[in-house]
Design a protein that fits this description.
This protein has 103 residues and is of the alpha/beta class. It has helices at residues 17-25, 92-98, and strands spanning 2-6, 9-14, 29-31, 35-38, 41-48, 61-64, 70-71, 84-87. Strand 1 and strand 2 form a beta hairpin.
């Protein structure tokens, strides 16, 4: 995965060729990590950037940790397979509540 760090957090910005091959080798599964090490420093993954996985036709499932607070525009744009989302073990409503966007 590629990522940009800012302070103590980072945003996932896409997949490297190795990451894309890993998704294919693992049946389309894409686990988003809770943390990411960049230049020997560990950052919490709190966002997925705009167009991060755009046009990736191999993704079939995504596991999102509780640390992710936002998804960018068109994160899964033109991903042609149906994607099963796992939201850190929470239901979609619980996940939305944890982000403060549902009551």
């Amino acid at each position: 995965m590629t990522a940009n760090a800012d302070g103590t957090t980072c945003t996932i910005t896409g997949l490297t060729d190795t990451g894309k091959a890993w998704v294919v080798a693992n049946g389309g599964a894409l686990p988003i990590p809770e943390t990411r090490v960049i230049k020997d420093k560990e950052y919490a993954v709190t966002a997925i950037g705009d167009n991060a996985f755009k046009e990736n036709t191999d993704i079939t499932s995504v596991t999102m940790p509780n640390t992710v607070e936002s998804l960018g525009n068109h994160t899964f744009y033109n991903c042609t397979k149906r994607i099963k989302m796992s939201l850190g073990g929470m239901s979609p409503l619980e996940y939305r509540r944890s982000l403060g966007i549902a009551t």
